[in-house]
Amino acid sequence: MSDTTDKIQQIRSLLDELATAATSDEHALFAHNFDALELPAIVSSIVDYLQPLLRPYESAIYWHLFRNSILATGQQFVRASTKGMRQGVITSSSGQSATLSYATVQDTLAALEDKNVIAKVGDTTRNGTLYKVNLPEEIAICQELMAQDKERGIQPVDEPRELDYYNVRENRLKVFERDGYKCHYCGKQLTRFTATLDHIQPASAGGDNSFDNLTTSCLHCNSRRGNRPVMDMYADGKDNNR
Ligand SMILES: [Zn+2]
Known about the structure:
single chain; mainly alpha; DNA Binding (I), subunit A; 2 domains; three-stranded antiparallel β-sheet; 8 helices; 5 strands; about 45% helix; binds zinc ion
């Protein structure tokens, strides 16, 4: 009996280790994958899809956190303190003071968290709280706006250059956008930093770089699959429809 309990305990701690390893892989990936050339697209999507949904203080604090995370380090994580954001971020809306009240900053952070625009990912220390700064593709309220735009249809797909969705940067983003930045295999929500492209029919088996032969995958699923076609993933008889 206690033998079983021990084993369950062991399995639990192994799972914990795996989860931790996966998270640190991802942290490394954020730093590794960040590409300054993508900034214009990121900033545009924030202005188009996030900013219209924010109040002025929320917007100011979001950009402040963006500047100190993605711009400063190429990562989506930043430690920030309420005290530190009272001054130098935005002047109070009354125009009376260059300093925000403690409560205003707290309320604004809470509102941003409610909308999943930022997420608390660590404990609060003397240096502040660790936040993850989300991008529009990770934020549900933005996804709705993005989907509406997509429905209006702005992308004709027949220029020769557009046939290559693997090597052309803006085309890659179209595949990710079509898939909602979710991993085709495990459903995990990704960002343009973490999403990778996977050939449904591998290039080695004659698969091309067309829109339909590419799918969004997280790094784990992509490397796990290696060069095997999609079907192999489901060789155990599970549903293999897309
Ligand atoms: Zn995955």
